[in-house]
Amino acid sequence: MNTVDLKLKRPSETGTGTADYKLAMVDLFKAGKIREARTLLAAQARPEEMDEIFRWMYDNLDMWSKTPEGQDEAILVIRKGLVNHVSCADAEINLSATLVELSQIV
Questions:
Q1: What mean pLDDT do residues 54-58 have?
Q2: What is the pLDDT of residue 72?
Q3: What are the extents of the domains in the chain?
Q4: Residue partners of 7: CB distance under 8 A and separation at least 6
């Protein structure tokens, strides 16, 4: 585990013991393994925790960028994804698109 992971707020544990998938997903995105990260998300995220995932991404802005400008951009991407979440027919596609946009922040 690298030092960035130690600063992240740990997701709440679930009964299935899969809460660490969020940290693994971020590591995959940062490594440029976008397809693998989305596959992990699809396999692990439950529909009822989508709102929680958006909040978790917001609470951990420093995983998307270390600069204030990059974090501001991340906030806008997360907000757009959250707004789209309520009107999107497929929450997984919307969350995946949000994560792709976040991974493109320089």
A1: 89
A2: 97
A3: 3-103
A4: 62
Place of tokens 């690298």: 2
User: Environment class of residue 35 by beta-carbon count within 10 Å: exposed (0-12), middle (13-18) or buried (19+)?
Assistant: exposed
Instruction: Quote the tokens at residue 39.
Output: 């596959």
- Whole-prediction pTM: 0.71
Quick: pLDDT tens for 30-50. Answer: 787 878 887 887 788 887 888
Answer whether 98's CB lies under 8 Å from 78's CB. yes
pLDDT exceeds 70 at position 58: yes
Q: How many C-beta atoms lie closer than 10 Å to residue 46's C-beta?
A: 11
User: Which residues, other chains included, contact 58 with Cβ-Cβ below 8 Å and sequence gap of 6+?
Assistant: 75, 78
The DSSP-derived string for the chain is --HHHHHSPPPPP-TTS-TTHHHHHHHHHHTT-HHHHHHHHHHH--GGGHHHHHHHHHHTGGGT-SSHHHHHHHHHHHHHHHHHHTT-S-HHHHHHHHHHHHHT--
